[in-house]
TrEMBL record:
It is found in: Cytoplasm, Cytoskeleton. The keyword Nucleus does not apply. One of its GO terms (cellular component) is microtubule. This is Kinesin-like protein. Its main location: cytoplasm. Residues 13-353 form the Kinesin motor domain.
């Protein structure tokens, strides 16, 4: 820690990248056409309206982002280019967020989690875990580390702890609290100390089993909740240029967010319980969109963070003290043209948001600080 160069602070934009999955088996069987073109070198996405095939076409919509990826993009490439810089900054005491957004069945959970049993297909979350503990192994001779983790979901506008048994989580409504020392946090949320990569991977598996999923017409195993896996890394060290050789503590917090998929009621085939779930999902995503729009506008005197649990929890990630990357996931089929354009518009607005990340140096809430003083 003491010998590494920490990333520079200051106001910086939320980074937004787009990943387009390949055509699904269902889409190929239905003989759907692709309406998306990905120009990786130009960082550009073109979406052509259904039925429009002419060389000059006002139906073509063009979007530019910080990076764009087509179906050939590997999990390792996406992680190294998009998420690794955020994770690295967290190890230096910054807050960081990686946020996956998109339509149901667009590949968000594959991007964030991937496949557990195949290393080359691991997603951002397990790759981030590996990065964190590799960094600790390289620096533990000069730095003392403490790693904690929590895992929650927001289901029907209620916060559930994914690290307790499913029935207990469903019956316990967790509250959002705001304090001067910690900021916004979830009262009584399980937060466990992690000692190794295997510890934290096991925690991920426990949480995934407890997460709310359900079948819709768009996706047989669609996530019906927003999930946030949070890793807090504390590091105590002696600064090289400190003549007093005092111990300092830096605390970085990493939010790994897999949002529930956006869907239109007509396509989802939602009834009863599924209708209520989808109504709440769309409401919270609309609230998130309103926050993004207000921040992107730059003139709004009121940012509506309090409109939903999701926006409260992401308050630091959007317009606050964090380095943030949004990964917008889309599908290529013309059947989903309107949803794809909506996702790209949503993501494009987020590019205008500016955060003010700073190193969290010697905060009062640091557990290592308490241990050092004892």
């Amino acid at each position: 820690m003491a010998t590494a160069d920490a990333p520079s602070s200051g106001r910086e934009r939320v980074q937004v990248v787009v990943r387009c999955r390949p055509m699904s088996h269902r889409e190929l069987v239905a003989r759907r056409r692709s309406c998306v073109k990905v120009f990786t070198r130009q960082h550009r996405i073109e979406v052509r309206g259904p039925g429009r095939r002419g060389p000059i076409d006002t139906g073509v919509r063009v979007f530019e982002f910080d990076r764009v990826y087509d179906s050939k993009c590997s999990q390792q490439q996406l992680y190294q280019e998009v998420a690794h810089p955020v994770v690295e900054s967290v190890m230096h005491g910054y807050n960081g967020t990686v946020l996956a957004y998109g339509q149901t069945a667009s590949g968000k959970t594959y991007t964030m989690e991937g496949f557990d049993d195949q290393p080359e297909y691991r997603g951002i979350i397990p790759s981030a875990f590996q990065d964190i503990f590799s960094y600790i192994a390289r620096n533990q001779s000069s730095t003392r580390f403490l790693v904690r983790a929590s895992f929650l979901e927001i289901y029907n506008e209620e916060i559930r702890d994914l690290l307790v048994p499913g029935s207990s989580a469903a019956s316990t409504k967790l509250e959002l609290i705001e304090s001067a020392d910690v900021g916004i946090f979830v009262k009584n949320l399980t937060c466990r100390r992690m000692y190794s990569l295997s510890d934290i991977l096991h925690l991920l598996m426990v949480g995934k089993k407890n997460r709310s999923v359900g079948a819709t017409l768009m996706n047989q195993d669609s996530s019906r909740s927003h999930s946030i896996f949070t890793v807090t890394v504390e590091a105590s060290y002696v600064a090289e240029n400190d003549p007093g050789k005092r111990l300092h503590v830096r605390v970085g917090k990493l939010h790994l967010v897999d949002l529930a998929g956006s869907e239109r009621m007509s396509k989802a085939g939602a009834k009863g319980k599924r209708f209520r779930e989808l109504t709440n999902i769309n409401w919270s995503l609309m609230a998130l969109g309103n926050v993004i729009s207000a921040l992107a506008d730059g003139k709004s005197t009121h940012i509506p963070y309090r409109d939903s649990k999701l926006t409260r929890l992401l308050q630091d990630s959007l317009g606050g003290n964090a380095k943030t990357v949004m990964v917008a996931n889309i599908g290529p089929s013309e059947h989903n043209y309107e949803e794809t354009v909506s996702t790209l518009r949503y993501a494009n607005r987020a590019r205008s948001i500016r955060n003010a990340p700073r190193i969290n140096q010697d905060p009062k809430s640091a557990l290592l600080g308490e241990e050092i003083l004892r």
